[in-house]
UniProtKB/TrEMBL annotation:
InterPro entries: AB_hydrolase_fold, Fungal_lipase-type, Sec_MonoDiacylglyc_Lipase
Record Pfam families: Lipase_3 (PF01764)
Domain Fungal lipase-type: 128-266
Superkingdom, natural source: Eukaryota
Species annotation: Panicum hallii var. hallii
Protein name, per record: Fungal lipase-type domain-containing protein
Length: 373
């Protein structure tokens, strides 16, 4: 477990500038309505004009389209491989609703092809954590060996909770856990105790779930919000109910016939033994050519949401677009390129770019960490 870790901090003046700017920005703010509202608002709503329908089906839960759109843009941006454009927030996906985002930390685990960033969205008044998973073709690998490979969690009061070994160790046994926790703690110190929004797509969504649980235990359930896109199941029923209790502000977006949320399988006739999703699913679904966002029931496995799609119609292409936003890597070969160039070189280049740019961004890169699955 010889893990080499390097952290580079940019010039102090940049940090001082940030501090000065922040002292005039409002701290704290109203609690984000994610959100579970009073039953009186159970009819749901449709935001005006061009916004798609939100079908609430009598749920006491309101889906905020604008907020979700901003978050999917973060989940898409974390796939970008040009780290310089990422920390400067000038990448081709770093615009629209996320304009003005301030990256405070970029985390890259070369060995496991994992990437994450932490930063502050001043418009949402929130700390954003976005996590990217490994390559899409590893989906086949998950299917191969994931079905019964579960491991116990070492959190208190969850004797029966089991989670997927590969997904969990991608968070727990790599650079991600210490680096993200540290970056969030630092951002809260610098920018005030704002809401924390954790997001990710696909396997990044699975990892984001564990991250959100971890942050909720550390910083309080009320302060942590999770929104994932097309994530696979990550644990058993005991885990799902534990999760629902600790991370109640969770939205698990699914899209039409996306295959990944159906994996690993859930067998309704073996409810205690198989994997099970936690709530709350919101299903992006075409109805007569109109995109609707169907708010699903609190069970995590609503039979009328994406589970209503017959197995033969499951699709890989619906996995790659959410809310009209393309959400896949711009270049999957980059993991190898980075390896070839050596992480040390990458780190040096980035560090000098960051110093030149006068920004205050931490870069944490591991070129050797524990190999997960
Ligand atoms: C949805 O979220 C946006 C961004 O946080 C916020 O400005 C807006 O007021 C929210 N809308 C509703 C109906 O809560
Ligand atoms: C999670 O990480 C901790 C601390 O590094 C370690 O003790 C524990 O065994 C890990 N859990 C799993 C399931 O790998
Ligand atoms: C689809 O949208 C059109 C135009 O807004 C509307 O007239 C129609 O009723 C919608 N269909 C459904 C099934 O909601």
């Amino acid at each position: 477990m010889d893990r080499r870790r390097r952290a580079v901090e940019s010039a102090a003046p940049a940090a001082v500038m940030v501090l000065l700017l922040l002292s005039i920005a409002p701290a704290g703010g109203a609690r984000r309505d994610w959100g579970f509202r009073s039953p009186s608002s159970s009819v749901g709503f449709t935001e005006p004009n061009t916004k798609p329908d939100v079908k609430n089906n009598g749920q006491t839960f309101v889906f905020n389209y604008t907020l979700a759109k901003a978050i999917v843009e973060y989940a898409s941006a974390v796939y970008m491989t040009d780290l310089t454009a990422l920390y400067a927030w000038t990448c081709s996906r770093c615009n629209d609703l996320t304009r003005g985002f301030e990256v405070t930390c970029i985390i890259v685990d070369v060995q496991n092809c994992l990437q994450a960033f932490v930063g502050v969205d001043h418009k949402l008044n929130a700390i954003i954590v976005a996590i990217r998973g490994t390559q899409e073709n590893s989906i086949q690998n998950w299917i191969k060996d994931m079905i019964w490979k579960q491991v116990k969690l070492n959190y208190p009061n969850v004797p029966n909770a089991k989670v997927h070994t590969g997904f969990y160790s991608s968070y727990n046994n790599t650079l991600l856990r210490p680096a993200i926790t540290n970056a969030v703690r630092k951002a809260r110190k610098l920018h005030g105790a704002r809401d924390i929004i954790v997001t990710g797509h696909s396997m990044g969504g699975a990892i984001a779930s564990f991250c959100a649980l971890d942050l909720a235990i550390r910083f309080g359930s009320n302060n942590v919000h999770l929104m994932t896109f097309g994530q696979p199941r990550v644990g058993n029923a005991a885990f799902a109910s534990y999760f629902a209790k600790y991370v109640p502000n969770t939205i698990r977006m699914t899209h039409e016939r996306d295959i990944v949320p159906h994996l690993p399988p859930y067998f309704f006739f073996l409810p205690r033994l198989t994997y099970r999703h936690f709530p709350r699913e919101v299903w992006e679904h075409e109805v007569d050519g109109n995109t609707t966002f169907q708010v699903c029931d609190g069970s995590g496995e609503d039979p009328n949401c994406c589970r209503s799609v017959f197995v033969l119609f499951w699709s890989a292409s619906d996995h790659l677009t959410y809310m009209g936003v393309k959400i896949e890597a711009d270049d999957w070969s980059t993991c190898r390129i980075v390896l070839g160039r050596s992480a040390e070189q990458l780190q040096m280049n980035l560090a000098s770019n960051i110093v030149t740019s006068g920004r205050s961004v931490d870069v944490v890169i591991a070129d050797y960490s524990v190999q997960v699955d």
